[in-house]
Each structure stands twice: as structure tokens, then as C-alpha cells.
Amino acid sequence: xxxxxxxxxxxxxxxxxxxxxxxIRDTVRLFVERNIxxxxxxxxxxxxxxxxxxxxxxxQLGVLGMHLEGYGCAGTSATAYGLACLELExxxxxxRSLVSVQGSLAMFAIYKHGSEExxxxxxxxxxxxxxxxxxxxxxxxxxxxxxxxxxxxxxxGEDWILNGTKMWITNGTVADVAVVWAQTExxxxxxxxxxxxxxFTAPEIKKKLSLRASVTSELxxxxxxxxxxxxxxxxxxxxxxxxxxxxARFGIVFxxxxxxxxxxxxxxxxxxxxxxxxxxxxxxxxxxxxxxxMTLELGKAMLLALHLGRMKDAGTLAPEQVSLGKLNNVRExxxxxxxxxxxxxxxxxxxxxxxxxHANNLESVLTYEGTSEVHQLMIGKALxxxxxxx
Length: 390
Ligand code: TGC
Ligand code: FAD
Fold this sequence. Notes:
The protein is an alpha+beta fold. Helices cover 53% and strands 15% of the residues. It has three domains: 8-127, Orthogonal Bundle (Butyryl-Coa Dehydrogenase, subunit A, domain 1), CATH 1.10.540.10; 133-237, Butyryl-CoA Dehydrogenase, subunit A, domain 2; 240-384, Butyryl-CoA Dehydrogenase, subunit A, domain 3 (Up-down Bundle). It has helices spanning 7-11, 19-46, 51-61, 78-91, 93-113, 116-127, 239-273, 285-314, 319-343, 355-367, 372-384; strands at residues 69-70, 73-74, 133-136, 152-156, 159-170, 177-184, 187-194, 200-201, 216-226, 275-276, 279-280. Strands 4-5-9-8 form a four-stranded antiparallel beta sheet, covered by helices on one side. Residues 97, 100-101, 135, 137-138, 144-147, 170, 237-239, 242-243, 245-246, 248, 319, 368-370, 374, 378, 387, 389 line the site of 3-thiaglutaryl-CoA (TGC).
């Protein structure tokens, strides 16, 4: 007898998605099927993503800064953006990262906090994928605690001089523009740093065993001289970069569901054809218990993502609610990836199947955009009124 439903089909989450968002989602899914899935295992194994070509394709698809208005951006709903992230991450977390960093971090920082001139200069080209952006917040000694950053900017006449080092910066090496956060006399400020500015270099970090289909870099700023108007004029303090993180974290709430869906569906398909002790692996109770438990967590994660999406569209989503989604959905996605892997036995550890790649990627996703512990503490702060970070 054939299967009658899929894991998310069982929850009928489709009925919660409107026609417009569904159309966008289906377009992204088709793109991933055609442009990502056939090549991703090779890109991952080689540790070499063709970012520039992909950025143009993603720009044509319309997903770069898709939830922003104007400047060549599509102005879709937040839920549609989330669903696009879900489909992209079903391909690979590195592809979703590319889109997150471009749209939710680099573009959003300029869109929300930049001058009209900065927006006109960068956003249309970034939306088209002709210019690539990166977002430099983390430093070698300040990841979870960006308030301690050492990178600094001082005034020299009308100009700014930047010094410091940023670490683990997605797309740094290939970026045309870096949004860099630095200490100034008046607190943390953002700066728009075009690649090629003397004193700015971005060496790639190699030997990653996770997110191999993504460029990760150091940013080195050695007396980088910028004109006075390179500063993001409309925000000062840590809330500047943290406001951008809310956007990217929201994308991960959905994206992680995509990675988990891909793992679980792969396990179901494999179990149906793998004969063990003379009958299909999917017919054993031990397998079905695993599949049922994973389906429950996948469905709950999707329902949470859609709920948060609706709240974001209504303008009521608070940062600690994004933490609920990021914490739960990435944690459950990793658990689903690991459990799905067991169903494939030895085959599960090869690149022939996507599961181990997703599991490895999700280790980075668990850590970046706020570690699980940071999100637990943000939820703890909301529940108690007490900040336990320091
Ligand atoms: P705290 O004193 O709590 O806050 C400082 C100011 O910021 C405001 N604020 C926020 N504003 C907007 N959104 C949020 N989520 C905000 N959280 C706090 C806050 O109201 C305050 O404003 P004001 O006006 O009073 O000055 O700051 P804290 O130093 O105690 O730190 C809090 C903590 C630990 C939660 C924060 O530092 C944090 O989130 N740490 C994690 C860092 C992180 O997530 N880094 C990610 C780097 S980017 C990245 O990983 C990209 S990965 C690539 C990809 O996405 O694919
Ligand atoms: P640490 O902050 O040193 O944390 C180490 C451990 O301590 C963690 O388990 C953490 O949860 C725990 N911990 C921290 N604080 C507390 C506390 N108060 N109580 C209890 N436990 C605590 N950053 C960018 O700015 N831009 C990017 O584009 C970017 N891309 C990335 C891409 C990849 C592939 C990776 C892996 C990271 C990227 N990051 C980026 C950096 C990422 O945001 C940081 O790695 C993350 O914020 C954690 O910082 P850390 O690695 O320094 O860990």
C-alpha cells in the first residue's frame, strides 16, 4: 500500500498559506530543484560555492531583500520571505545564508538605518545580485557579546578611520560592500565599507566542516579611511545591529524547517525501498516510531514558523518571540537530521544523500544569529525581567 500523505501534509499546513505566498514559495522550490539540488553536493564537497553567479540568479528570482519595499525589492509579506527561506534551506543552509546575509543583514541595515544616498547607491544593485554584501558584527573575542567589540572608528577631519578585526563573516571575501559595526566616541555605529578601500582585506576561513557551501571570512580593517558620509546616520548603539539580527533570525525560523523536511522526506523514501530481514525498513515499528516523532516536531516547528510569520506581517512580532522560533526550530531540525541519518545506516554518512550535509550545516545555524544559550537567556529575560547574560 502506498503512503497517503507527507509529514507536513498530515498537518495540512498548506491551508494556512495564502495563494500569493504559496505561488512565491512554489517558484523558489522549483528554483532549488533545478539550480541547487543537482549541484549542491559537489559544491559542498569542494567547499566552493559560485557565489557571484548564484547571487545573480537569486536576484533574478527576486528573493534578495524580497520583504523590503522599493529600491528594486519585491515588497512581499514576511511570511512569503520565510517560506522562500524554507525552500532555499531545503537545498542547503549555505544558500539560505547567502540570501539572509544579503537581504536581512546587509541590505536591511542600509534600508533601515542608511541615508537616501546609501540606499540609492547600494540597494538596487544588491536586490539584483549584482553587488554582494556582508555584515561584520562578530569579532574573534566577541561573538555572543557584541557590546564588547574592539573595532573602532575615530574622526579625522571629515573622514572616519576604522581599525579592527571581524571574524566568521559570511560572504566577506566575495563582498562588494561590508556593513561594519564599530565603537565610536558616541557608542556603536555602522559603516558602509566598499571592498577595495585601502586597508580593508577579507581572507577566507578554510577547513570548515559545516556550511561548506558558503564563504566565511575574516574582515581586517587597518587604518581604513572612509568619507564622513560612510556612517549609517539613523541609528546608534547596539540596537542598530540587533535590529538587523531580528530579520535574519526570522528567516532561520522557517529555513531550519526546510532542512528538517528534506532530511525526514529522504528517510521516508529510503526506508520504503530498503529491504531489511526480507521486508521494507518502513514496515518495522521501530522505524515508524521514529518517523512519527519526527513528523510531530516538524509539524509543530512549521506551525510555530507560520504563527510568527503572521505576527511579523501584523507588525506585532517581538524579538523574544523570534528567539522562541530560532531556538526551537533549529534545535528540532538538528534532532530530526540526526534521527533521519540513523534510518539510512551507513548510506546516511555519505554525500549521496543530503542528510549528513544538513546535519553538519545545522551545527553552524545553531551557533550563528545567537546561540541556543543566548536565545534561552533572551526567553528567560522576558519571563523574569532579569538579564542573566552577564
Ligand atoms: P542589551 O542591553 O540587552 O541591549 C542593547 C540595546 O539593544 C536593544 N536590543 C534590541 N533591539 C532590537 N532587536 C533586538 N533583538 C534587541 N535586543 C536588544 C536594547 O533594547 C538596547 O537598546 P537601548 O536603546 O536601551 O540601547 O544588550 P546586551 O549587551 O546585554 O546583549 C544582549 C544579547 C546577548 C541578547 C545580544 O548581544 C545578542 O543578541 N547576542 C548574540 C549576538 C549574535 O546573535 N550575533 C550574530 C552575528 S550575525 C550572524 O551570526 C550572521 S550568520 C549568517 C546567516 O544569518 O546566515
Ligand atoms: P561564544 O560567544 O564564544 O560562545 C561560546 C559558548 O558560550 C556558546 O555555547 C555560547 O552559547 C556560550 N555562551 C555565551 N554567552 C553565554 C552566557 N551569557 N551564558 C551561558 N553561556 C554563554 N557573525 C557576523 O557578524 N556576521 C556573519 O555573517 C556571520 N556568519 C557566520 C557564519 C558561520 C558559518 C558561523 C559559524 C558564524 C558566523 N557568524 C557571523 C558568527 C556568529 O554569529 C557567532 O559565532 C555567534 O554569535 C557565537 O559567537 P562565538 O562563536 O564567539 O561563541
